[in-house]
Every structure is written in structure tokens, then in C-alpha cells.
Amino acid sequence: MESQNSVVSSKFGRAAKLVGTGAKIGGNYLKYYAKKAVTGSEDKDSLHNDNAHDIYESLSNLKGSALKVAQMLSMDKNILPRAYSEKFTMSQYSAPPMSSALVMKTFKSATGKYPNEIFDEFDGKSIAAASIGQVHKASKGDKQYAVKIQYPGVADSIKSDLKLVKPVANAMFGLSEKEMKKYFEEVEEKLLEETDYELELKRGTEIADSCGSLENIYFPKYYPEFSNKKVITMDYIQGLHLKEYLATNPSQDEKNQLAQALWDFYEFQLHELKSIHADPHPGNFLFDGNGRVGVIDFGCIKEVPSDFYLHYFPLLIPEIQNEYEVIDELLRNIEIVFDADTNEVKQELTEAFLKMTKLLSRPFQTDKFHFTQEFLDEIYQIGEEIYKIPEVKKPTQPRGSKHALYVNRTYFGIYSMMADLDATIVNGEMAWRNNLKEKWLNSQIEA
Known about the structure:
Blueprint: H1 11-39, H2 44-62, H3 64-75, H4 82-89, H5 100-111, E1 121-122, E2 128-129, E3 133-140, E4 143-150, H6 154-173, H7 177-194, H8 197-210, E5 217-218, E6 231-235, H9 242-246, H10 252-273, E7 275-277, E8 285-287, E9 293-295, E10 301-303, H11 306-312, H12 318-321, H13 324-333, H14 343-360, E11 368-370, H15 373-387, H16 390-393, H17 403-421, E12 424-426, H18 431-446
Parallel strand pairs: 5-9
Antiparallel strand pairs: 1-3, 2-3, 3-4, 4-6, 7-10, 8-9, 11-12
């Protein structure tokens, strides 16, 4: 893959790059309509492939939050045509890297020293390049490290990048200005956190310590003495990304073991720590071929507020799903329905939301659950049905707590990885369900 000798960092330069991409897309449509006029055929696959290539090329060269948008969209596989999804998946761990010369310059700017002044050996060629930074292999003595270097100008461009992305989000998802403001503030906050490598080091260390007793999951150790806000150094750990791992044709027993490790990891984070690794795409995990999975990126962590937790997760419990007075209170708290809504709107939104949550909660309803692509397709199909509801398609006010944005994204990411593994997981005691049932059902009895 061709490397970059520079990263566009100025607001004008980044805007011009996106405008140029828009012109290319316009040209692709002209070619499509010209071909259609001559041949009478509709080859939309070719159009999607051309557009996906041009959009990805633009975003991958811009890096930062622009590329992060592609990464997030690649996790929602049924939102975009397959050509986009497949192309954008590359942003998870295989974006065009900085050249060796630019790496050295960026490292020196961040640390005051060149890599070879700190490490005995440093490979100028990256082993992984994604949206916020790229990773290099280094060594000191007999110790091997993975050194992640942030792309220049990424943190400074987040606000302006998101302003450029807003019209795209509006066109693709029909979001109103109020909705975009609400959710983009959450996205902006998380993206800014991702550019703070000192915060990532702290969180990665804390979660690794808290989850150290979980089976078949491992974490790198972080090294503060070789890290700062723009450079983070950790153990170099072995393993393959999911697509590469699946290409080795592993046994189903091993895939189930890996899925169970991931499932237990996320269950523990959500219900014990109330803080989750909220970027569960395949680029952030390594599979070691021995039934273990390594977690290598803690830049995006969502801390789940207790009030949101107490009103969101009861919706996944069947006994509570049948208690409509409780459901009404829960949906009001997480901003799905409002007092000002008509009874018709309330009923329509409640029924639609319950239909979705009943489907999403299916993995928790049995001792074992088998994740399949068909299950994912069913989720997306219901999502499309819900989107057709007038108050969802063109809402009179923003609906849904901002905290649900990254929690939902986490669930969809995990479900997607489970389906790729075609895995069966086993549910444990799930004490969280009993605790929430006791709280909400007892409140009804007392009332």
C-alpha cells in the first residue's frame, strides 16, 4: 500500500479534499447515466464500486475523524451498499500509512527525540494504520514493543471535520439539525478522548487490571515512560485480525471459545464496571490461534451513567417488556417518548421500540445462543421498518439518549463479530437481570 509523505491538516485543505471527492462522485454518476442511456442497463454495482473507491481514498488520506466516520459506517453493514461496507472495512486496520520520513518527523515533534534515540531498533514501516494513528514495531534490549504514533493535526481538525461530515449524515440518515447537534456532541467528545493517548494508557491499564481474571482474553502492558499525549507504547502481542484468522479455517470449538471470551468481557464491563470498550471492530482484536483473544485499543471508552443504565437495560428483560407502565417510564427517561407526544405517536414508538429490543435481547433469553448472519439481517430489517415510521424518519424533536449511541454501537459491533464467527455462546448467571427485575417489578407491586 502506498504511503503518505504528508497529512492534510488545514481546514481549507481538508474541505477542498472533500469538495474534490464530491466532484469525482458527480463524474461517476455522469458515467453511470451515460452508460445507461447507451446500453439501457443499470449497472449500479459499478457505480457503487467507483464511489466507494473515491470516498475511501479521500477519507483515508485525510485520516482523523473523517476516516473514523468510514470506520463506524463499516460496522453497520446493512446501512450502505456492500461495495462501501467492504471498502470502508479497510479503515479498521489497513489505511494508507505515513511514510517513514513523516513518521520520524512526527515522532520527533511529539517526543523531542527520534525513535532510535529511545529504542534500540525501530521499524519505520507500520504494522497497522487506522484512523487516528499508526503502529510500529520497536525493541529495547530483549523486549519488543508496539508504538502507536498519532497522525499530525488529527486533534485540531476534529471540530471542523465533523462540520464537513454533517451534510453527509443528514443526506444519508435524514437527521435533523437538532439531532445532529445532540449526537455529534457525543461523537466529538469521544473523538477528542481518542486523541489523548495518556487517557488511553490510563483506561487500558485500569480495564486490563479489572478484567485480568477473565478466561481466554489478554491485554498488552503499557509503558508510561515511552508514552505521552501523541505517542503510546505497549507490549507487542501476537495474533491475527478476524478476517485473517478465519482464513486459517479454525475449528468451530475454537471459534466458540473466542466468542465466549469476548461475550464475557463485554458482559463484565457493562454490568460490573459500567464502562465499556466502545469500538468493537475487528481491527481492535487479535486472535492468537490458541482460543485466546487480545484487546489492543482502549481509545474509545464509554462510561455508562448509572441513571441511563437503570433505565436502558431493563428493556432487555422479557418480564419487564410486558409491564407497560414500567416501559412507559423507561422510554420517557431514555428520551424515546415525551409528554408532548400524542397517544398515537407514543403507542407507535413504544410498539416499534419494544419490537426491536425483544429481538436485540434474544441472545440473553436462553442458556445458549447461536449468532448467525440471518439474525443480523433480521435486526437490520426491523431497523428499516422502524425508520419508515414518520416520527422516526422526520422527528419533531431528537429522540433517544445520547448515551445510547455508543452502547448500541457496541452491541451491533459485538453481534457482528459473533456472527462472523458463526459462534454459540453460553450465558452465565446474569445477576444484572435479577437485580433489575427486582428493582422494577417490586416497584410495581409496591405501587
